[in-house]
Amino acid sequence: MVSLVSRVAIGSDDTYSVALEAVKYLEEKGFEVVRIGSLLTGKPEPWPYVAYHVAKLVATREVEWGIVICFTGTGVSIVANKLPGIRAALCFDAETARGARLWNNANILAISGRLTSPYILKEIIDAWLSVRHPDPGELQNIEEITRIEQEACRFIK
Asked: What is the pLDDT of residues 99-130, one digit of tens each?
C-alpha cells in the first residue's frame, strides 16, 4: 500500500475523461494528488503552462512524480523535458511505461487525452508504479542523461 504522504502532480489542458480517471485512480491508491490546469480550474488551459507547472513540482521535489496530459501527449512531454532533472516519457501502453521507469528512470508520465482509455490508463499507471527502482544495469546510462543535461545547460548559457 502506498503511503498517504506520497504526492503526485497531475496536469491536463482539458477535462479529458482519462485525466479525471487518473486523479480518481491514484487517490484510491492512497496518493495525495496535486491538480494542475483544467483539473483545478474546470476549463481548458494552455498545455505549455500545465506541463511547466507539473515539471516544476517534480524538479523541486514537491511531488514524487507527475502525469501530464494534452490531446496527443506530445506537447506536454516536450515542455516538461525542458526543465533540468525531468525525464518525461510519452506512453501509450503498459510496457512502454514500465520500460520508461526501469531503463530511463522517467519521473513524468505523458498521456494522450484523445487515445488513452480509462482501462489502458490504469494498466499504464500500474506498470509505472510496479517499478520502484531503475535497472541497476542502466544506472550508467541514466547518469549519462544527467551529464548531457548539465553540459547542455552550460553550453546554452
From this structure: 999 999 999 999 999 999 999 999 999 999 99
* Cell numbers describing residue 3: 503511503
User: What are the residue boundaries of the structural domains of the chain, listed by start?
Assistant: 7-156
Which amino acid is located at 124 in the chain?
I
pLDDT of residue 5: 54
Active site residue 153: no
| Model pTM score | 0.92
Secondary structure (3-state) at 7? strand
Architecture of domain 7-156: 3-Layer(aba) Sandwich (3.40)
Strand partners, 157: none
Q: Which residues 6+ apart lie within 8 Å of 9 measured at CB?
A: 33, 34, 35, 36, 53, 54, 57, 58, 62, 63, 65, 66, 67
Residue 21 to residues 48, 74, 105, 114, 129: CA-CA distances in angstroms? 22, 20, 24, 13, 16
pLDDT higher than threshold 50 for residue 2:
no
Active-site position among 55, 67, 70, 121: 70
**Residues facing residue 111 across a β-bridge:** 69
Is the per-residue pLDDT at 73 higher than 70?
yes
Residues 87, 32, 5, 66: what is their CA dihedral angle, to the nearest 10 degrees?
Answer: 0
